Amino acid sequence: MNHSRGYEMPINSEIIKIQFEVSESQFDQTQTESYRPVGLENRILVGHEQGFDHVAFICHERLTSWYSKTSQLDARIKSISGLGQAWESGAYVLRYPSNFREQMQDFVYELINSVNLEALVQSSDKIIEKYVKIWRNTSVLGLSEQMGLFGELWILEKLMLANNPEIVHSWTGPEGATHDFELETCHLEIKTTSINNSDIKISSLNQLRPSNPDLYLIVVNLNQGNGRTLPQQIEIIHELMGQDVEMQTEFFRKLELARYNEAHSPRYISEYEVMEPKFILIDSNTDVLHEDRFESPIRSLSDLKWTLDTTTMPLELLTDDFWLFNN
User: Cβ–Cβ contacts within 10 Å for residue 219, how many?
Assistant: First the structure.
């Protein structure tokens, strides 16, 4: 809690909800924007105008037009009349469609109770960034996304069992790295397919470019209908971390970046069994596509996605000995 706010206790979410409802009712009667105070000192308002909920803070900066913060959240600095000179001099206002009021409830509660009134724009942006990550995870993962995440987590389990739980730091795929795992001794790129599918999707031109340290491509074939669900696989890794709170936090942060939302776990009921995973060392002799294969650079090519038929590659069966390379 920012104690410079002028109050000790957080503003109750039910009070915030009621003030939005009163503001909307008043707008329906008058057809003019309506605001209601929340908190002490009349320094924060919630309101309604023409289908939008508003959250307003006194802010005496240059007036602006509406500009987009996210696809559903706009901001501007404007004048609010009828509430005293302070508000007429300027207010920082965030708005969103009122039919999203319920979905935005947690965000508005944290915004009102945690924003730094001395640095409105910067501190509200930090809260927005946090919730953008949450909102991004509102959709359920598709089947191919579930399988892809399951494959990476199965590999993570093997690495943890053969090495130590801290190897979760090397799971770099969710952070947008070129390869799914980047260890000191090697990089691992994980591709997950169904048992009857030999094609794998390569997401960039140089994803399978030979690297230093060595790059291994691991193909995880899944048989759907037996084995573990995605939430069960996550729980197994969680248990391997024991009581290491820092490691657990890091793991769940990366799950969030991978678009896994714990609230959707009851929807992930498919069971997967790993069937004969295989691997190959990617070196200069491996028959895959990357920019080194071009005789001359293609200046107009920024990137591309392509498909690899794994039946054309001399893959080796992945055995337990493979996981000891990092000891």
Answer: 22
